[in-house]
Design brief:
The complex is a heterodimer of chains A (246) and B (643). With 246 residues, chain A is α/β, with parallel strands linked by helices. Helix content of chain A is 34%, strand content 26%. Chain A is globular. In chain B, a hairpin with a 2-residue loop joins strand 1 and strand 2.
């Protein structure tokens, strides 16, 4: 796989996080290389979403090293992290219900970005996104609050892509949507990957993760219990039974 | 009233609606995005009047006066907007994560500071502005002379509404503002720096308030009382229209201004031998409208159920029963208070101040009872204080009831009022509930203010003293004992199963109901209990002063109570007592120290808000936490020495 020799985009180590007095993450370490799709797996409450939120700077209390594009982003405000090119798609979608599809996209817009080597990164426009998500293209003037869950899920991904992120944090894309939408999400991730996008997704649906990702990390009670290629995990029924309830 | 008079009144209503809309829409915009209830919004309106007055006197004279006048209006609005931006950057940014009510306290401190600043710069006299060049005269309308400036006012409201609508729907900035109204945290995760968005919105809101003040100047003189009256009107409009909704603010300002104008137009009517004065009703009609709207549509005409704010303040800590140290301190304070009258040789004033503080403490504790453990925020607690004091006065003066019996019955009168108002209030929550309490207190105020035959109207009632065997020092001890018992009783309520039910309903009404608690009933009872003890404070007050005036039911009396509770810290049961004591002493000391006591007082509040976001009682908790962190270390050191 060529991606494994690409430079590291995101390098997290010793990440701890708390909700109030409850200690949730214990020394989580993971990395994502350019062009990779990585799955962060684990059961409900294992700390998958918390890890993504901590990377994004959305938790009020977290510690550790979070290195993105060679810069330490720990302790930075979410908007600063987002402006460096880290895109975040929340699991509960958080569409702006009073805004139309087009306006929702507008809220995520950022200037085109370049990689450190001077090459242009993926540059998204509403039209390009409507091509990727034809459903959205047909309802540009509909308000977010009047869309179905699956349509909102598409919109929340598209909204984040408007920021031209160098790496996308995708929180539970297959959760709470109809099977047909899950299939569309998988196609969408593969389409993005084909264009060279890098994605770190949290996922408890093993079949979904196997379909789209190169490598996997498995979390249990806030600790990384396994890391390796998706292929190896597919053959490791012990880990699957212990931590993924497959 | 003939048809042409009615039409003229309707036009007057439209003219009045414009200025009201300008100030209310700014308030609504600011609340929508920042979730700050800006108490100082009326002050920005007032400053708009004063600044435009000064500018017009400078540049609105001479041959270029037409340009100067209209330019001055715009410049005044811009100047007020700039001031708003400064306030946001220097003050509000530091307290966005503080509890909602603390932000309210901070903006209330600004009201005091701005009011004294205006007094210092422009003096105490009302200032009447020049007439608008070109619009000095009147035009003939339906055979009547109608001031042509009003026509300008009628146009400016819808014009600004249109511009705002364009700004919010057609520009990227407007899209961001609307997005932030719903979910600011998500917007931040998309790369939007909220800080500048908030500054922009706050400045825009203040600018609109400033403009509202500036255009009002040719109709109404600039005066130092405009700030509080304006904020009351603006709150009502925002709540009736729905918080955060600009079309709602527009609709509500039209509705209220028109109903007021029609009331003035109708005047006094004789119906079946009863004389009804509609023009007197204007004092209260907006609050009546608000009460009706809130009961029928709890989120306002065009409002929507507010999404719970995502980065709100931390949940309330559990209450801890007092330690032995705490009990001894309480007994000590009680004994000290009991010794105050013995100082009448050296410090004769001490007992008077002590009496006031005791009454204030009971007022604050009763307010805290519903706000803290009850979770029901009230801007209108003066209603029950007023019912208690006027109730006692009327019972003694008109029903010839003996004073001790009146002292017993008057708090129950206040409780009856709370029982009635509470039935409506507990249907709402948050700012809407607070606004409805304000409406009820305003209704009580206006009844007392206008019912000359019974309450003496604006003159109030005099000569209500305790019976001889209870006067003087004895009355002080009676107050001390009653306040002590009341505070103890309210504390017992909080730690009784009833108190658990109150706190459960506050923290999660859904879960509380799921385990069988009738949350609304519990809140209704808590509301009523708070009313009874608030009434007792009013009763104790009137027999110590011997007279009463409608001021005891005013908004500022309610705000005093709020300030005491918030100063003391809402998460602590001792908070309101400490807050009342600090408030009483500070106010007394500061008022004697300087003419600009409001500014100094406001400055002290701002300092306290910024330095101790947990309230004064929070200081002791901070020290205690430090102590517990430190103590194990001490133990370790000792053990090391032993080994």
């Amino acid at each position: 796989m060529t991606a494994s020799v690409n430079p590291i985009l995101l390098d997290v180590s010793g990440l701890n996080a708390w909700y109030g007095a409850a200690h949730i993450l214990f020394d989580v370490a993971l990395n994502v290389r350019r062009g990779e799709v990585i799955s962060l797996m684990g059961r409900n409450g294992a700390g998958k979403s918390t890890t993504l939120k901590a990377i994004m700077g959305l938790l009020s209390r977290s510690e550790g090293q979070i290195n993105f594009l060679g810069q330490d982003i720990a302790g930075k405000a979410p908007f600063q992290v987002a402006r460096m090119g880290l895109g975040f798609v929340p699991e509960d979608r958080r569409i702006f219900p009073d805004l139309t599809v087009t306006e929702n996209l507008e809220t995520g817009r950022q200037a085109p970005r370049q990689w450190a080597d001077g090459s242009a990164a993926l540059n998204w426009t509403p039209d390009a996104l409507y091509e990727l998500f034809p459903n959205l293209g047909r309802m540009q003037d509909r308000r977010g609050g009047q869309m179905s869950g699956g349509e909102q899920q598409m919109l929340t991904v598209a909204r984040t892509l408007m920021g031209n992120p160098l790496l996308v944090l995708l929180d539970e894309p297959s959760e709470g949507v109809a099977p047909v939408i899950v299939e569309q999400m998988a196609h969408m991730i593969l389409a993005l990957k084909a264009r060279g996008a890098s994605i770190l997704l949290s996922e408890q649906n093993f079949h979904f993760a196997r379909l789209v990702s190169d490598r996997a990390y498995v979390l249990e009670k806030g600790q990384i219990m396994y890391e390796g290629s998706m292929q190896d995990l597919t053959h490791n029924s012990e880990i699957q039974r212990a931590y993924l309830s497959v | 009233m003939d048809l042409s008079a009615l039409l003229a009144q309707l036009l007057n209503g439209l003219a009045g609606a414009s200025s009201l809309f300008l100030v209310a829409t700014g308030l609504s915009l600011i609340f929508g995005v920042t979730r700050i209830v800006n108490f100082a919004h009326g002050s920005f309106f007032m400053l708009g009047m004063y600044v435009s007055y000064s500018l017009i006197e400078r540049i609105g004279v001479g041959p270029w006066r037409a340009v100067g006048f209209w330019g001055a209006l715009v410049l005044a609005a811009l100047a007020v907007g700039l001031l708003g931006a400064l306030v946001e950057i220097l003050l509000l940014r530091r307290i966005y994560k503080a509890p909602e009510l603390f932000q309210l306290l901070a903006t209330f401190a600004l009201v005091l500071v701005f009011n004294d600043a205006a007094l210092w710069i422009w003096g105490p006299e009302d200032l009447l502005g020049r007439r608008a060049p070109g619009l000095e005269g009147a035009i003939q309308l339906f055979g009547r002379a109608y001031p042509s400036y009003n026509l300008f006012l009628i146009v400016i409201g819808p014009a600004i509404f249109g511009l705002l609508w364009m700004l919010l729907t057609k520009t990227r900035w407007g899209v961001m503002v609307r997005a932030a109204t719903h979910d600011r945290e998500m917007l931040g995760a998309l790369g939007v720096n909220q800080a500048w968005l908030f500054t922009g919105v706050f400045a825009l809101g203040c600018m609109l308030a400033g403009l509202g003040g500036a255009v009002q100047l040719p109709r109404q003189p600039a005066s130092l009382t405009v700030d509080i009256s304006t904020i009351g009107d603006a709150f009502v409009v925002v709540v009736v229209g729905g918080m955060g909704s600009i079309p709602g603010a527009f609709l509500a300002s039209l509705l209220i201004a028109e109903v007021k104008a029609i009331c003035i137009g109708i005047g006094t009517v004789h119906l079946a031998g009863i004389e009804i004065s509609f023009s007197k009703l204007t004092l209260v009609v907006e609050f009546l409208i608000m009460a009706v709207v809130l009961v029928i549509r709890p989120w306002g005409l065009l409002g929507r159920l507010q999404a719970t704010s995502r980065n709100s303040a931390p949940v309330e800590a559990p209450l801890k029963p007092g330690s032995n140290w705490f009990r001894m301190t309480v007994i000590g304070v009680f004994l000290l208070m009991a010794m105050l009258p013995m100082l009448d040789q050296s410090l004769p004033y001490a007992a008077v101040l002590g009496q006031d503080i005791l009454v204030a403490a009971l007022f604050a504790v009763s307010l805290h009872f519903m706000m803290g453990p009850g979770g029901m925020h009230s801007f209108g607690h003066s209603a029950y204080y007023g019912l208690g004091s006027y109730g006692a006065a009327i019972l003694v003066k008109l029903a010839f009831m003996p004073m001790p019996l009146a002292m017993l019955v008057a708090p129950l009168v206040a409780g009856l009022g709370a029982l009635l108002f509470g039935w409506f209030c507990v249907r709402l929550s948050g700012v809407y509930l607070a606004m409805l309490t304000l409406a009820f207190s305003q209704i009580v105020w206006s009844v007392v203010f206008q019912w000359d035959a019974v309450t003496g109207g604006s003159n109030g009632m005099v000569g209500i003293w305790p019976e001889d065997w209870l006067s003087g020092t004895r009355y002080y001890y009676l107050t001390l004992v009653l306040v002590g018992l009341s505070v103890y009783a309210l504390r017992r309520f909080v730690f009784a199963p009833f108190g658990y039910a109150m706190r459960a309903g506050r923290d999660s009404s859904l879960r509380a109901e799921a385990i069988g608690i009738d949350v609304k009933l519990v809140q209704w009872l808590a509301f009523t209990i708070a009313g009874v003890f608030g009434g007792l404070a009013g009763t104790l007050y009137i027999f110590s002063k011997g007279s009463v005036s409608p001021d005891v039911i005013s908004v500022s009396k309610s705000v005093d109570g709020l300030v005491m509770v918030l100063l003391g810290g809402i998460q602590s049961l001792t908070g309101p007592v400490i807050g009342a004591a600090v408030f009483g002493v500070l106010q007394d000391w500061v008022m004697r120290a300087t003419d600009y006591w409001r500014a100094l007082f406001g400055g002290i509040i701002l300092f306290l808000v910024l330095a101790f976001p947990e309230g004064l009682a929070g200081i002791s908790r901070q020290i205690e936490t430090l102590w517990q962190l430190y103590r194990p270390a001490v133990g370790v050191v000792r053990r090391e020495k032993l080994t």
